[in-house]
Design goal:
Layout: E1 2-4, E2 11-15, E3 18-22, E4 26-30, H1 36-41, H2 45-51, H3 57-68, E5 79-86, E6 92-100, E7 107-114, H4 123-137, E8 143-149, H5 153-161, E9 165-166, E10 171-174, E11 180-189
Length: 207
Amino acid sequence: MGRRPGTTAGTFTCNTDGHVLGTDRLLLRTLRPDDLDEVIATVDRVVLRWQGFPSEPDALREFFRLKIDPGLQVHPKYNEHFLISERSSGKIMGLRSLYSNPRRNGTLATGSWLGEGWRGRGFGSEELRVIVAYAVEHQHATRMIAGTENTNERALRQYRSAGFRLASRTKEHALPDGRTVPAVWLARSFRRSRKAAICALGQPSLP
């Protein structure tokens, strides 16, 4: 088991069961297929509005089944989802995802949501800080990107506060529910500080 001390962002632990990231108030752990019900329970109308997930229950379940099953992932090179929970209570709050971009070595795309009752309390910024530290120090990302609808002020503030900057003009973006929305991409670049390594999961870091 490997453990890297975080800076002010938090800590992360790597073992054969997955990754666990920690902050003062939060725990993020690698999502498992049997977490499906807990993930779906965090999806409310606000999440559906911004994420564009299918709203019909059976379609939503199938969407997430395809999303989190390792054998069915679109980008098997690196695609990891983290269940976000409150450290003190163990309650599930939402999900954070990281995706490799097969056309851009060293780049990770990221996105997340928090369910009802957890928004507006600083949790989103807190979990983003530790996921950035994890992506850079453990997965050796040299660039991170995130997309959001151009009117989602909460998401825009969160990414800007974490050092992300506007990287694209507003473009039309298709959501899973079929809607097309005006979206922008934000990005943050990092220096590669050391040679990529194999983590305890047997996953190579990004090239």
